[in-house]
Automatic annotation (TrEMBL), chains A, B:
This is Sucraseferredoxin family protein. Keywords: Iron, Iron-sulfur, Metal-binding. InterPro entries: Fdxn_Clost-type, Thioredoxin-like_sf. It comes from the Bacteria. The lineage of its organism: Bacteria, Bacillati, Bacillota, Clostridia, Eubacteriales. Transmembrane segments: none annotated. GO terms for molecular function: iron-sulfur cluster binding; metal ion binding. It comes from Thermincola ferriacetica. PANTHER family: NADH-QUINONE OXIDOREDUCTASE SUBUNIT F.
């Protein structure tokens, strides 16, 4: 298996037990994840950029949370409208978005 | 917020929609996650080592999957019995476990 150059994690508040609750999920994080998947496909980056949903990260008041590894960059209050800019600037340009980092 | 020195992701097969199915979940990945949480607490590493469950990573036949970032190390077929060694060797010792990497 090829390991990803970037791995984007989107909190969708999925509890390990399968229960789903919390702010990120309420704040349309599933649509956020889908937006990342679409952008990755459109840009032909499917083999080097992965996107995975996560369980609660414990900082719900800053959600929806998006983490980009291996950079260890944490974005807060991310909306679907921010996805294109994150992809363009950070993932393709190598410049993390200061305005969304917390 | 302090960012983690290590972030351990454990696939618990949580779908973004809340549905939960797949090999990792069937293979006791929830107990695996709990074992990491206990080890982290016992070693007093709670402020620098995070553990988060994830949705399906798409490589179910190699599950349960554990990823350690920012190292981008992918472990497969991880069991509860491996947790102490991963914590001791990789997280505390800085030496990823070759026998579990795929």
């Amino acid at each position: 298996m090829n390991k990803p150059k970037y791995h984007i994690f989107v909190c969708t508040s999925s509890r390990p037990t399968g229960q789903q609750k919390g702010f990120c999920h309420a704040k349309a994080s599933v649509e956020l994840m889908e937006a990342f998947m679409e952008e990755i496909e459109e840009r032909g980056l499917g083999s080097e950029v992965f996107v995975t949903n996560t369980g609660c990260l414990g900082i719900c008041e800053k959600g929806p949370i998006v983490i980009v590894y291996p950079d260890n960059v944490w974005y807060g209050a991310v909306t679907v409208d921010d996805v294109e800019e994150i992809m363009e600037e950070h993932i393709e340009g190598g410049r993390p978005l200061a305005r969304l980092i917390f």
